Amino acid sequence: MHFKKLTDLTSTTELTQLLHNAYAADVNLGIHFGASTITEQQVRDHILNTPTFVLQTDDGTIAATASVRLPWSDNPGPFTLPHIGWVATNPLYQHQGFAKQIITQVIAHFVKDELHAPAVSLGTAVEHPWLQDFYHSIGFQTIDTVRKFKDHQTAYLISIFDDHRTHQIDDVYLKKILPQTILNER
């Protein structure tokens, strides 16, 4: 697999289809993430405005994707931190560890190496039967639950790389909900 950041729009159609196919399983659970019905134009706009990453096979097929919403962008995450979103695996490549691999590579090569961020967040549906457990298994901790949508609650999770710098972030919401135990555990 090859990890890369999308820098042009040539993969828009394939990425849109991947998102629809990957998120169809969530729709079957009654959870309607926005990516399940995203349009090609929205995917184009997202690629242009949000760092978007893929794992590609040797023949160029996208096996998995994830993107990073930036705190200073028009579409920030809930905290003044990079926020991982659009985590999706092509159904033909599921159950092979590619979601874990792309998240790990996005964190290592973009969030840490390029952004030098002290932590990263992501969100998922509380009602999803296994996603929170998956994110916990790769180092994220749930720090808040909010109701943003009628069909599900959103759990916000965080992975901290530098306690001191994370604690120094000037973000009222983050300081309010970040349990001291997370900071003291490290």
From TrEMBL:
Keywords: Transferase
Location of the N-acetyltransferase domain: 1-163
Xref: CDD domains: NAT_SF
GO molecular function, one term: acyltransferase activity, transferring groups other than amino-acyl groups
InterPro entries: Acyl_CoA_acyltransferase, GNAT_dom
Any Pfam family hit: Acetyltransf_1
Protein name: Acetyltransferase
Annotated source species: Secundilactobacillus paracollinoides
